[in-house]
């Protein structure tokens, strides 16, 4: 009996060791991919101004921390009015080229982002694909008077929440709520 108990004990310890090693290999390697650290953001939105394409622009400024490779992020955008979620989408497949039409595949959810060709405020504005301290990323929330289910006319007091997610790790690296103002 003792010989069998000792063999069973060794086999059990070996099985536990293999299971733990496999678990670390499958799950632990993702932990090694640490997200960049972005300590704070500043942002601004103007609801109305000239009535042209300079309205409803969301600009986010990287105010400190690590540089961010835009190929490794997706951006969740939510618009709240009186505390209720009105529109939401996810922007992906960065970096986006300026002066090109943005493909609908780059936007999941409500198609509320202006995808027009000369959209200088779309994506990472320095154009090198790296979002660094002092640089802006931005986009324009379109107004769609013909189909209000697509665009949205921002009002003073609306809140636009921008969540930047590091896709390799799945971690949120920035979360900013911006209140829409008049200037």
TrEMBL record:
<keyword id="KW-0966">Cell projection</keyword>
<feature type="domain" description="Archaeal Type IV pilin N-terminal">
    <location>
        <begin position="2"/>
        <end position="78"/>
    </location>
</feature>
<protein>
    <submittedName>
        <fullName>Flagellin domain protein</fullName>
    </submittedName>
</protein>
<keyword id="KW-0282">Flagellum</keyword>
<dbReference type="Pfam" id="PF07790">
    <property type="entry name" value="Pilin_N"/>
</dbReference>
<keyword id="KW-0969">Cilium</keyword>
<dbReference type="InterPro" id="IPR012859">
    <property type="entry name" value="Pilin_N_archaeal"/>
</dbReference>
